[in-house]
Structure formats: structure tokens, C-alpha cells
Amino acid sequence: QVQLVESGGGLAQPGGSLRLSCAASGSIFSIYTMGWYRQAPGQQRELVATITRGGIIDYAESVRGRFTISRDNDKNMVFLQMNDLKPEDTAVYYCNADGTWLASGHISNFNSWGQGTQVTVSS
């Protein structure tokens, strides 16, 4: 299996910044897309940002210009720099990755989620 572990969440004031990190581990063969999603209480999980192995990036309109996604392909990591945070950014942030891994000698597809990290923006 492929495991994802997030870190870097916490409490920030409006206008502040946080940086999230996510590390993928396991018998990874290749990771195609990595991304961040978030889920606020009582709401559905929504896309925040994604980045392909080749560096193609997509942002939700609500975070464009404030958040920056990046990745380190050699370390199988993805990052989310969040600036100018707003109370409406409060949510649990989840890391996601899809690609291929070595399972019992065979290359298989995977799509994995992290356990989530809480981001709270409040004064």
C-alpha cells in the first residue's frame, strides 16, 4: 500500500500563513498527480489544488493567488503554502496522490488519502 502523512496544520490568524506538507511512502513506482482537498464541518470535501508530475497546476478559484502548491518528485512529497488565510479556509485538509506501485511483484494503480490535518483560521 501507499501511505500519505500530512503535517503542518494548526491555528492561524486571518491574514496569516501556514505551510502543509505531505509525504508518500510505500512501494511506489510512480506518482502522477498529488493534491490537496479540504472539508469543512457539514460540507463536502472540495478540491484545493493539484499538481501533476510534470508540474501542471490547478487551483480552486477561492484560493487562487493566496495558496501555492509544489512538489518534490524525488522525495514523493507535496506542499501547500497558504498565505492571506481567511476564516473560511478553516477545514480539515487532506493530501491525495494517485499513481502506480509494486504490489506482489505487479505494478498496480493506487489512489491514496492522508488522514487529514486541521487548519483553523481565527482571531
Helices and strands in order, then pairings?
Elements: E1 2-7, E2 10-12, E3 18-26, E4 28-39, E5 46-52, E6 57-59, E7 67-72, E8 77-82, E9 91-103, E10 106-113, E11 117-121
Parallel strand pairs: 2-11
Antiparallel strand pairs: 1-3, 3-8, 4-5, 4-9, 5-6, 7-8, 9-10, 9-11
Structural notes for this entry:
By secondary structure, the chain is mainly β. Helices cover 0% and strands 63% of the residues. It has no helices and 11 strands. The protein has strands at 2-7, 10-12, 18-26, 28-39, 46-52, 57-59, 67-72, 77-82, 91-103, 106-113, 117-121. The strands form 2 sheets. Strands 2, 4, 5, 6, 9, 10 and 11 form a 7-stranded mixed β-sheet that branches. A 4-stranded antiparallel β-sheet has the order 1-3-8-7, with no helix packed on it. The termini are far apart. The model has no long low-confidence stretch (mean pLDDT 96).
Q: What's the quaternary structure here?
A: single chain
Main β sheet profile: 7 strands, mixed
Number of helices: 0
Determine the N-to-C terminus distance: 40 Å
Question: What is the radius of gyration computed over CA atoms, rounded to a whole number of angstroms?
Answer: 15 Å
Instruction: Estimate what percentage of residues fall within beta strands.
Output: over 45%
- Percent range of helical residues: under 10%
Mean of residue pLDDT? 96
Helix- and strand-based class?
Answer: mainly beta
Low-confidence stretches: none
Order of helices and strands: EEEEEEEEEEE
Overall geometry: elongated
Counting DSSP E segments of at least 2 residues, the number of strands comes to: 11
